[in-house]
Amino acid sequence: MTHSPIKVERSGQAKNVARTNVLEMIEPHPAYFADLKELYHGYKGITLENYLVGDAPRQLERHFVLEAPRAYFLPPARGWASMTRERLSSVFAGARNEKFAFDAERDLPSCSVRVRRLDHVLKEQKINEIDLPVADVEGFEISV
């Protein structure tokens, strides 16, 4: 079975995306959410949400790597985050060069993020079918 992709338009330009009429993008980190909002501003059919998908509605502290130290790591370090400072710190422990020495207290701040259940989000958005779910659920793999 083949499906024609829909077109998502931005300023007169069209891009092919999934065959559904909605592309739901969820990003818990406020700074990355702001980046996505700027990147996809003006696109029709894209919904951006600022929360974390998890097992129960609540607020959680989430630790992340500051932008400045990321310049000293491999590109995948951008966006790394964890619910515990210790887990994230263990990845970068010992990272240093002549210009930088990693310090967990300084380089791994935290922010509070809202957690929502996926089934609640789908019901609220009236989404009954998902063709291809792709999600970074930040450690909630089993419960989501």
Question: How would you characterize this protein structure?
Answer:
There is one protein chain. The protein is α/β, with parallel strands linked by helices. Helix content is 23%, strand content 28%. The strands form four sheets. The chain has a four-stranded mixed beta sheet with strand order 5-10-6-7. The chain is globular and about 55 Å long.
Short description:
With 144 residues, the chain is of the alpha/beta class.
Overall number of structural domains? 2
Question: What's the order of the H and E elements?
Answer: EEEHEEEHEHEEHEH
Major sheet size, sense and barrel closure? 4 strands, mixed
Q: How much helical structure, as a percent, in the residues?
A: 10-25%
So what's the overall shape?
globular
N-to-C CA distance: 29 Å
The total count of strands amounts to 10
Percentage of residues in strands: 25-35%
Rounded radius of gyration (Å): 18 Å
How confident is the prediction overall: mean pLDDT?
76
Low-pLDDT segments: 1-12
Q: How many DSSP H or I helices?
A: 5
